[in-house]
Write a structure and sequence with these properties.
Elements (H helix, E strand, L loop, with lengths): L7 H32 L4 H11 L1 H4 L4 H4 L5 H18 L6 H29 L5 H26 L5 H20 L22 H27 L5 H29 L1 H21 L3 H15 L3 H10 L5 H12 L1 H16 L3 H17 L11
Length: 382
């Protein structure tokens, strides 16, 4: 049965794994910039390389298709969370550039492979009207998780070492993945997915939007928080407070964003996103006020949630059996520029920290132009 809204087992399974993934990523993101500066003593160009190499597993997401020859999607998703937990847990033990690179790669393989499978399973199990709503609910759950993680780190920062904090969060992911490995929420009646690479000319706009989204997003991921720490001297506690504020807002707004995609369609939602993000990047480059910079970070992250519209656009015009391989290919395309841009941005940062953000504004304008090519009917309301 296509995209049954009554398929609670898969929804709960994805909800639990999404919470675990959010726990791992938020703890890593909250701690890593201060850890890199204070413990590993990394500079801007080195952090750029770390962030570039962090995206190599995303570039290799196409390998998911071949792993699915021997593993089911839901089981591979659980194993991905286990790998992510190991990477997070080991981070605090390696206080050097190459140590940070190694643990970051391990964490990133787990995160990117889970996200590929999460998107694939959501698009397969929920129909065109419900998929954006489910994506919104999962993002809201992730944001709520981020609040709890941020609050815990804020309290723990005063008496726990970086090593201990990384180890605790990684251990939680490992334990949760063991529960998931014992579950089987799959539905044998779904359309079988192709176990091969899928490239189709009629998917060109999905590929283009995915590529531009990855390029623009990595500038934000690599340099927004680093800007706050390096230029505006945000402490770990200040970064944590910012994350909590950010995720309180996202907890409330994410379900509404999912409903907006279903109601207004992908072109309108993505147009609003890219117009707003262009202004945000210009703000990053121009502001000299630490409070304004923090506000821009929150606004940026809110609009990132609109990116679910790229995936639901693909769902509306793709063959059902292409979803799993296309999500893997899409993640690889998303990370082609992402592998290069953070490292290049790090070098440009050393010339003038504003250059990467101006580049982000230009990429957002390209995305806005491409979005106008979307032509698809809105899904009927359930």
């Amino acid at each position: 049965m296509e995209g049954s809204v009554d398929n609670r087992r898969m929804y709960i399974y994805l909800l639990v794994l999404t919470v675990l993934s959010a726990t791992g990523l938020q703890s890593w993101r909250t701690l890593i910039n201060n850890f890199a500066v204070e413990a590993a003593h990394l500079e801007g160009d080195q952090m750029g390389w770390v962030q570039s190499l962090r995206e190599v597993p995303g570039f290799l997401s196409l390998l998911v298709v071949y792993l699915l020859l021997v593993l089911s999607e839901h089981r591979l998703a659980a194993l991905s969370i286990l790998v992510m937990g190991i990477g997070v847990g080991l981070t605090g033990f390696f206080r050097s550039f190459w140590g940070v690179v190694g643990t970051t790669l391990l964490m990133s393989f787990g995160f990117h492979y889970y996200e590929t499978l999460n998107q694939s399973l959501t698009l397969q199990y929920f129909d065109k009207a419900r998929a954006p709503v489910v994506f919104g609910k999962l993002r809201a759950a992730a944001a709520a998780t981020n609040i709890a993680v941020g609050a815990a780190i804020f309290v723990a920062a005063s008496f726990l070492s970086y090593r201990t904090q990384f180890l605790i969060w990684g251990g939680l992911l490992a334990l949760g993945s063991l529960w998931a490995l014992a579950q089987d929420p799959s539905d044998r009646n779904l359309v079988p997915q192709r176990k091969e690479m899928v490239f189709r000319r009629r998917y060109w706009l999905f590929y283009a939007l995915t590529f531009l989204s990855g390029a623009r997003r990595q500038i934000f991921v690599a340099f927004a928080v680093f800007l706050l720490v390096k230029k505006f001297h945000y402490s770990l506690q200040a970064v944590t407070v910012l994350f909590v504020i950010n995720n309180v807002i996202n907890t409330m707004l994410s379900p509404a964003i999912g409903r907006a995609v279903a109601r207004y369609g992908e072109r309108k939602v993505l147009s609003v996103e890219y117009a707003a993000i262009t202004a945000v990047f210009i703000g990053y480059a121009l502001t000299r006020d630490p409070l304004v910079a923090g506000a821009l970070y929150v606004i940026d992250h809110i609009f990132f949630n609109f990116a679910i519209a790229i995936r639901t656009y693909f769902q509306k015009m793709a063959d059902p059996q292409d979803i799993a391989p296309s999500m893997a290919v899409g993640f690889t395309i998303n990370h082609i520029a992402a592998v290069v841009i953070p490292a290049l941005g790090g070098l440009l940062w050393m010339v003038d920290y504003r250059i990467p953000f101006v580049g982000g504004a230009v990429l957002s304008l390209f995305s806005l132009a491409m979005t106008q090519c979307i032509k698809t009917a809105k899904a009927p309301r359930a």
